[in-house]
């Protein structure tokens, strides 16, 4: 279903890359087809990306009650739905600004994990209010990769995360296999797994294996989960601010005293084109 040809753009935030599909009225793509998402994200046969961000006017979508000004319909590269995407929302906000869709009021972006407010900073970074973390438990979860086991902290940022502190970021290995976790019931819908080393009192480095994608160069919700876990690990409490280094760059996460997290980082749009459905296999 959908139009024979449609416009696309590509952008990234700390090299977590996304294909944007402008669909203001929500009818170009109908209910976005998993096969189309997989094909677009394929790095060999398609355009290549970690996920797809469909841009729909908030009032014209029917996925959530409050779609904000603009709704971000996020899909992982395997076609699955992710409730929220912290790098994606900045790239989405960059697209809105460049397309002239932003007024003088802060933009409210609707997601399946609630509405998030966006601030455009003078230094060209973008800040998203990521809302409050849920911390279902800090004990009992173990992640396994490359023959090693690590205890992990469960932090939910609208989507699920398991954060494991490691001695060396090389330890989890090259992720030839997806890391596993126990108990299975902790994450019935799968999980994003972050491996973290502490670099200083307020600085950490991480690698991530994303649910529905594989290892990526960055994960914004993951950086927030990591900042929460690092704060707790250090015996600190909000307000804290962490620099979180990822393979694709660095972001700043603040855990404010009102319990909201803010995520600040870069976001760029770097390619655009027109896609023809006749190219689909
Ligand atoms: N890359 C994202 C997270 C995308 C969703 C995730 N893979 C999931 O399934 O929860 C980010 O920047 O937060």
UniProtKB/TrEMBL annotation:
Keyword Disulfide bond: no
Catalytic activity: (2S,6S)-2,6-diaminopimelate = meso-2,6-diaminopimelate
InterPro entries from the UniProt entry: DAP_epimerase_AS, DAP_epimerase_DapF
Site (described: Could be important to modulate the pK values of the two catalytic cysteine residues): 161, 210
EC assignment: 5.1.1.7
Cellular location(s): Cytoplasm
Active-site positions on this chain: 85, 219
GO terms, molecular function: diaminopimelate epimerase activity
Matches recorded under SUPFAM superfamilies: Diaminopimelate epimerase-like
Annotated keywords: Amino-acid biosynthesis, Cytoplasm, Isomerase, Lysine biosynthesis
Binding site for substrate: 16, 76, 86-87, 159, 192, 210-211, 220-221
UniProt xrefs under PROSITE patterns: DAP_EPIMERASE
Pathway entry: Amino-acid biosynthesis; L-lysine biosynthesis via DAP pathway; DL-2,6-diaminopimelate from LL-2,6-diaminopimelate: step 1/1
Pfam families found in the cross-reference section: DAP_epimerase
Primary enzyme class: isomerase
HAMAP family on file: DAP_epimerase
Subunit structure: Homodimer.
Function, as annotated: Catalyzes the stereoinversion of LL-2,6-diaminopimelate (L,L-DAP) to meso-diaminopimelate (meso-DAP), a precursor of L-lysine and an essential component of the bacterial peptidoglycan.
Similarity comment: family membership: Belongs to the diaminopimelate epimerase family.
Name used for this protein in its record: Diaminopimelate epimerase
Gene that produces this protein: dapF
């Amino acid at each position: 279903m959908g139009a024979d040809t449609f416009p696309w753009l590509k952008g990234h935030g700390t090299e977590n890359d996304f294909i944007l599909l402008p669909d203001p009225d929500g009818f170009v793509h109908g209910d976005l087809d998993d096969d189309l998402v997989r094909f677009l994200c394929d790095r060999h046969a398609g355009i290549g990306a970690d996920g797809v961000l469909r841009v729909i006017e908030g009032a014209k979508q029917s996925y959530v009650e409050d779609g904000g000004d603009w709704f971000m319909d996020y899909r992982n590269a395997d076609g699955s739905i992710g409730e929220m995407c912290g790098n994606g929302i900045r790239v989405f906000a960059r697209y809105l600004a460049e397309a002239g869709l932003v007024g003088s009021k802060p933009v409210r972006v609707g997601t399946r994990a609630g509405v998030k407010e966006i601030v455009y900073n003078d230094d060209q970074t973008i800040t998203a209010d990521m809302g409050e973390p849920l911390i279902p438990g800090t004990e009992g979860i173990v992640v396994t990769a490359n023959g090693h086991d690590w205890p992990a902290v469960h932090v939910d940022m609208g989507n699920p995360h398991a954060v494991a502190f490691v001695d060396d970021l090389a330890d989890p290995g090259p992720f030839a296999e997806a890391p596993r976790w126990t108990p299975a019931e902790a994450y019935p819908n799968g999980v994003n797994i972050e491996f973290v080393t502490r670099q200083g009192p307020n600085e950490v480095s991480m690698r991530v294996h994303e649910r529905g994608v594989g290892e990526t160069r960055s994960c914004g919700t993951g950086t927030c989960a990591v900042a929460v876990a690092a704060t707790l690990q250090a015996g600190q409490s909000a307000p804290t601010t962490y620099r979180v280094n990822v393979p694709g760059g660095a972001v700043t996460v603040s855990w404010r005293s009102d319990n909201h997290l803010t995520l600040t980082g870069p976001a760029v749009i770097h390619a655009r084109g027109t896609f023809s459905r006749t190219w689909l296999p």
